[in-house]
Amino acid sequence: MRKMKAFVKVRPESGGAQYSDFDVPRIGAEDVLIEVKAAGICGTDMHLYDWADNIVREYKPKLPLVMGHEFAGVITDLGPEVNGFKKGDKVTAFPILYCGQCRYCRNGEPNICNDRPLLGLGANGAFAQFVAVRAKNVYKLDDQVPFEIGALSEITCVGLHAIDRIRMGFGDTVAVVGCGPLGIIMAILAKHSGAARVFITGLEQDRQRLDLARKIGATPVSVDTEDPKQKILNVTDGVGADVVFETAGSPSGVIQAMDIARKGGRVSILGQGHAPTEILTANLSFREIELVGTRAYTGRDWDKVSSVLLNTAEDLRHIITHRIPLERAAEGFQWMKALEGMKIILEP
Q1: Is 47 a catalytic residue?
Q2: What 3-state DSSP class applies to 220?
Q3: Is-catalytic flag, 225?
Q4: Above 90 in pLDDT, residue 273?
Q5: Assigned CATH class of 3-156+298-347
């Protein structure tokens, strides 16, 4: 069996991962083999690396497991039943291996399929020199999309799906709660989708990230030194935000999002918080606020991601703070834990 280098979760404990030799994956008749050129570390990878209870319960990962699900690369081999691709194509992949048979999949909602292994959690992923993916989950990238920007396809699709579900309109005032990678990407996508104003909130410890938000055209708000509600009211004639994206995944973030939304406004919950949030439901009804849950993405988002990446590449580059070889992946995880990196790109 041919060998490759990979970053592999080997022990059911915090850390417990190593850079080592691993078998190059075999492909089936409907699969493609992709040589990974760039892969990004995300919050879900962090949870697996830490062996968090919620991830273990949700995905039941079987070790050893190659981590990673955000990536871009080049097709190097194809199964005999694959059509529409050729060797050398620049590609990325929809990493949810949805069943394709249930009512949700048949309804175009594979993101909420009941049987949805994820690359890097339920199947060997992309923190490796090669990854095998079924062809129906693979999407071509324009040749002008750099590999590191292509590795942002997955998180970009999360944002595109949220914008679609919340019905964000041209000229809307948009607020983003949380200034992590997803928060910054939501600000970028909102701006490029026609928002009139984009605000983004964070803590004083997030000062560098808030400064980054300013560079991409958003108005940063430090909740430690400013009242986000009052700041937004001051520039909206006392109305508030039309649309709010909660990306922090915290109870306080949800409360803040509801507070800064206008009457009749819409709040999108992207942050996957794992602590309960106590809300006053009368606040929803009296002010007619819509609270919309958002999970992952569908094929519609992936169909347009290449063109979106092309149009937003200059802004997206700002969130890539580190580019390191795959063999240093463990360092990347430590930087993420210390909030020293925004998006860390691994290069196998």
Answers
A1: yes
A2: strand
A3: no
A4: no
A5: alpha beta
